[in-house]
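Q: I have two molecules that I believe assemble together. Could you output structure tokens for the complex as a whole instead of separate predictions?
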Amino acid sequence: MELPVISNSAPAAEGGGCASSGCGTAPDALGHLPDHIRAKVQDHPCYSEEAHHYFARMHVAVAPACNIQCNYCNRKYDCSNESRPGVVSEVLTPKQAINKVLAVAAEIPQMTVLGIAGPGDPLANPARTFETFEELSARAPDIKLCVSTNGLNLPMYVDRIAQHNIDHVTITINCVDPEVGAKIYPWIFWENKRIFGVEGARILIEQQQLGLQMLTDRGILVKVNSVLIPGVNDEHLKEVSKIVKAKGAFLHNVMPLIAEAEHGTYYGIMEQPEPTPEMLQDLQDACAGDMAMMRHCRQCRADAVGLLGEDRGDEFTMDKIDVMEVDYEAAMVRRKVVHDEIIEKLDAKRGIVNPKAEELGIPADARPVLMAVAGKNGVVAEHFGHAKEFLIYEASPEGVRFMSHRKTELYCGGMDSCGDGDVAEAGATESLLDRNIRVLEGCEVVLCSKVGYEPWAKLEAAGIAPNGEHAMEPIEEAVMAVYKEIAATGKLSPAAETLKVA
Amino acid sequence: MALQITESCVNCWACVDVCPNDAIYEDKPHFLIDDGKCTECLGDHSVPQCAAICPIEMAIVDELGAFLNPPGSLTGIPIEKLKQFGLWKDAA
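A: Yes, here they are, computed for all two components at once.
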């Protein structure tokens, strides 16, 4: 079966294009898809940029074992202060996981998706992974199941994946060339042996590509995740994107490498540089010609709970779940009402054609402007100082599109908060405010509900115009309104210098 | 003749699933190998399976206390770096 691929090409003038929401997985991009596929992704926060504002997901950590080593991963994964892939607080048995899913689904009705993503590789833990899926597909048929894998064991489990109605699979594919692979994967465990270097990478790549083809042949939606590792696979990922698209992958999610010495990973200890936000964006843009790109990934933990970008895992620890009584039949009725309401709202939004730039008095040759937004649930919502992340939008005569998110907090509070002083010292000297302003590099405006006096002055000094005029307005509308204000000052003509204050 | 798991173990379950003798069991603070059951995989596999999949250096030792996966052997991190970060030991 051939799966259609969402087009990322520039929007047609009359179509509204990217103006109504984020690019790539925006509602209008989903509009190109046949109904049965759109229905599969419209409420999946990890597959649809729009859905992630409204629908939540959770991961259950039933899969601790792994069968490969990646240079960005450290298998010592029990730090509760970090948020990054592979990190969890407690590994669950399938029974515990099922209780947790039912409790969360009853409590957070907009939770539509249950994924198994680790902390190891789900398909290296087939008994625990499939027991969890089997039980959940029987007891909670209204929850979508998905799985994320390194792909090594994928071909041998494709039929079981299909059998359990798991119709979203994410494969992490960082390369298609074993020579590149050997710089990312030191070894794999394959046919009862540990296989190092190029040979191990060659087998892994073969299995990933075979697994991808087998999934798309069966009509299962596949998202490909790639970690951008500067100097290792940055240029190479353009080829990866072409190849996975040709094999029928539906969406490509290029994520920045996280490499901090205090995480104890090979790349962290060897001081492998992380990509800058600009490098990531450039690569995503370069791949976008071939493939729909996901730009809203939050690189979450293998036990994350809630909307992307938030983690409510602390509300659902096993001791709390053990004393919750869940009537799932009743919960399903409530959940359906909530889901229908959200879908109805999204459908209504899809019908609205946003005004074209020229109707707003924006010249067709105006230069694009990057704006940072402290947003939540699709509106400008957060106080500058409280924002844990900024959503980066680009406004241009074509409209407003979501580009990326940038975190304002360190991934890890350092060894003191980890309670484990055996790795590096976290030598942070920069003030949090200075750091947050640095995170906004390249943006000319920051929209938030409020900005304090001190950050206001520092933001202006850094050439970023603070704007608190659009609190609680929908993000795209607010960004376009500010873009229009800037256009009115004449600062958007191609020759004009970067504006200092809007 | 049996292998043992050291305190470096992170309880990832990988070895449990591949042991042909069901010799590995859950315990606190980490998994252990039943020395009555462990055969070091002789007759089943060319290499001990627990040590072949274990992702953690220094977590599995033989009867003499020698590491089956010594420091640096799995990650490729040079020994001087391991020493600098307090990740190096020469014996269990």
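A: One point stands out. The first strand of chain B starts at residue 4 and ends at 5.
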